[in-house]
Structure to design on (337 residues):
């Protein structure tokens, strides 16, 4: 971190500010005195320093970081890729393509168990399904909640597929005991109290990028979870809101290689929410495999036209089967280059 002090500061004030910094933070301060201003270079763990607090000090003119504000999620401090491994042996990251599939919302035992069987047969290693559903309209279907979690558990028992489902509130955490990967949705990406609480759990967290958030903000949200002690974080690019109206969101496919360059955490892509259109899911999934995504999370419903939630962006099990074959061929080809 670089701190530029205001011109014409007395040596006493400069020394006092430096002492304040070294007393408050575990840093070493190098001082360069110029003709018109003094520059301080902070060496050490500056991730805990609040830029705005420093900038507000009377002697400070400007503050600039020369290193990213996230440390635990930073590849510089963790060069090797993180691989998320579940007790059953399923992995996300580490040179394989993980397929996570299932309906947007759990609607019945028959529905979730049937879809689970079908996506497993097509190569999915994880079952997704919403029990708690954050919806734009308060009148839309909000999910089956605790009952939905019970039905997911039944599907897991029947198929052996680990469960990936979304949490909306800290209060719901006790209900997630049998959930294998807890998903934090786009609207909760900066729910910092929730993130801090999840940092004290021992379950992998799938963290979705917010609708209008930068890559750095996504990594800082991951840092909240990791700072609490839980380093099992999976990042998800699910499309961001732009001026384009032809799709539900705009899939930022460039975010995948960017994140993988900046961070060691695995990255999955959600083409369903990115497009909002079922026929677009396959080409977007293929593009995600081509740029090196560690996995795909896809909405699959056995009767999309009658789905209670997001039917327009859901594909059928047969369509998922064809998609799975194509993305694996693309993945294998790219990995062999």
């Amino acid at each position: 971190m670089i701190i530029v002090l205001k011109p014409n500061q007395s040596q006493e004030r400069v020394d006092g500010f430096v002492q304040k910094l070294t007393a408050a933070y575990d840093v070493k301060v190098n001082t360069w005195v110029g003709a018109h201003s003094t520059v301080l270079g902070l060496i050490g763990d500056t991730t805990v320093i609040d830029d705005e607090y420093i900038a507000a000090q009377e002697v400070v003119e400007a503050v600039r970081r020369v290193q990213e504000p996230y440390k635990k999620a930073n590849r510089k401090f963790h060069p090797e890729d993180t691989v998320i491994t579940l007790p059953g042996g399923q992995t996300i990251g580490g040179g394989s393509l993980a397929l996570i599939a299932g309906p947007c919302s759990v609607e019945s035992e028959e529905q979730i168990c049937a879809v689970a069987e079908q996506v497993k047969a097509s190569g999915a290693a994880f079952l997704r399904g919403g029990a708690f559903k954050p919806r734009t309209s308060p009148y839309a279907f909000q999910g089956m909640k605790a009952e939905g979690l019970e039905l997911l558990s039944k599907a897991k028992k029947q198929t052996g597929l680990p469960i990936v489902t979304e949490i909306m509130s800290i209060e719901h955490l006790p209900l997630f005991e049998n959930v294998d990967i807890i998903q934090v949705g786009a609207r909760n990406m900066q729910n910092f109290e929730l993130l801090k609480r999840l940092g004290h759990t021992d379950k992998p967290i799938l963290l979705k990028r917010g609708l209008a958030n930068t890559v750095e903000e996504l990594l800082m949200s991951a840092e909240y979870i990791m700072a609490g002690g839980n380093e099992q974080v999976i990042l998800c690019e699910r499309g961001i809101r732009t001026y384009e109206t032809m799709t539900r969101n705009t899939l930022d496919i460039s975010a995948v290689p960017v994140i993988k360059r900046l961070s060691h955490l695995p990255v999955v892509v959600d083409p369903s929410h990115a497009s909002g259109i079922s026929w677009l899911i396959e080409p977007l999934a293929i593009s995600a495999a081509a740029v090196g995504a560690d996995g795909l999370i896809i909405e699959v419903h056995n009767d999309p036209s009658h789905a209670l939630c997001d039917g327009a962006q859901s594909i059928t099990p047969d369509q998922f089967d064809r998609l799975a074959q194509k993305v694996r061929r693309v993945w294998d080809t790219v990995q062999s280059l």
In short: The mean pLDDT is 93. The radius of gyration is 23 Å.
